[in-house]
Amino acid sequence: MAPQSKDKYFPVSYTEDTDSLGDTVVYDTETLLQQSEKQTTRKRDLLPVLTGVCALLNIALLVTIIFLLRHPEPFITDQRCARQLSVTVRHVSISPEIMTAIDKSNSNAVQLPDGNYLGATEVFHQLHCLNLIRQHSYKEYYDVDGRRPPGLTDSPATLRKHLDTKHKCRKFDKIVEWEKKNQIKDPVRPEDAVVLQTPPTR
């Protein structure tokens, strides 16, 4: 039996028909090998890129896990707002020099036994009021059994403009630090103080 020719199993050319009736594309063995080598090289070059992307994704995941461990409440919640406001909404002791610097009259201010004046930082009071307005916007959630949040019972849930205060941009952390430093932790009620009746909440 005569041996079969190699050309029958290893063609030296490959013809691809195209849409054109008269044109054909011919690929010889060398061209096919070159194309195969290019594809292999392209895949080999793509491997470091994919490895780098996977490494970046792993780093991002690790950073996210560390952030969540250090900040268990990264999102704003009612409990977080309550804790933040309860820590910062405090009365502070304001010296006469600061009263002069902020152009506030002491004629109707409450004077403390040490000569300073009773005050509060506006930003925390304003944040507290904005939080009440936010709660009023979702009455179906916060108005449980007809009990509305304090502050929304007798007054309309609107912003009241007060343009008599000078404002200046400051770092919020510095304001919190100053607030805690000047807090009146153990307030003493003056002997001649008039105790007002707490308004009903319903």
TrEMBL record:
Keyword Manganese: no
Pfam families: UstYa
Keywords: Membrane, Transmembrane, Transmembrane helix
Transmembrane keyword on record: yes
InterPro entries in the record: UstYa-like
Pathway this chain belongs to: Mycotoxin biosynthesis
GO biological process entries: mycotoxin biosynthetic process
Membrane-crossing segments per the record: 46-69
Similarity section: Belongs to the ustYa family.
Name of this chain's protein: Uncharacterized protein
Species this chain originates from: Aspergillus terreus (strain NIH 2624 / FGSC A1156)
